[in-house]
Amino acid sequence: MQQTIVIQHKSGPNIAVRAVWWLFVGWWLSGVVVVLAWASLASMVGFPLGIWLINRLPTVLTLRPRSREWALGQDAEGRTVVAEGGRHQVAWYFRGLWFVVVGFWASALWMIAAWVLNLTVVGLPLAILMFNRTPFVASLYRY
């Protein structure tokens, strides 16, 4: 029987620093990044920048670190293997079709709604959740 150990790593500032960041910088800077990301997506030349910005929205909003995951296990011959993990992704052609038909406009509405929720302290947890899911709304990309 093979056993696989999954190790998750998150690094970043503590919650107090993240709260101060949101209070003074994150709430307004995330709005700038939303506009830049969507404008970049609108131009085919800026598409890679738009995707890069969308993937960093949670960090811009609250300095939330991106988590990394490693799997430690053994291969069929008994050797120890360490691999950086990731989630299974939908095929690229479906993701591209999704973006062209739905993701382009849906991500704009999604990011605007998340940013408006971000302006209220009560809506902030939902805004963070929505910003974390923006890559999926735009292109079915899973973290």
Supply database-style keywords.
single chain, 143 residues, mainly alpha, 5 helices
Structural write-up:
There is one protein chain. With 143 residues, this protein is mainly α. It has one domain. It has five helices and three strands; from the N terminus they run βαααββαα. The protein has a three-stranded antiparallel beta sheet with strand order 1-2-3, with no helix packed on it. Helix 1 runs antiparallel to helix 2 and helix 4 packs antiparallel against helix 5. The mean pLDDT is 84.
In one word, what is the shape? flat
* Assembly form of the protein: single chain
What is the mean predicted local confidence, pLDDT? 84
Question: How is the largest sheet built, in terms of strand order?
Answer: 1-2-3
Order of helices and strands: EHHHEEHH
Domain tally:
1
Please tell me how large the radius of gyration is. 18 Å
Largest sheet: 3 strands, antiparallel
- How much helical structure, as a percent, in the residues? 55-70%
Helices and strands in order:
Blueprint: E1 5-9, H1 15-42, H2 47-55, H3 57-62, E2 68-74, E3 80-84, H4 92-118, H5 124-139
Antiparallel strand pairs: 1-2, 2-3
Give the gist of this structure.
Helices cover 60% and strands 12% of the residues. By secondary structure, it is mainly alpha-helical. Strands 1-2-3 form a three-stranded antiparallel β-sheet, with no helix packed on it.
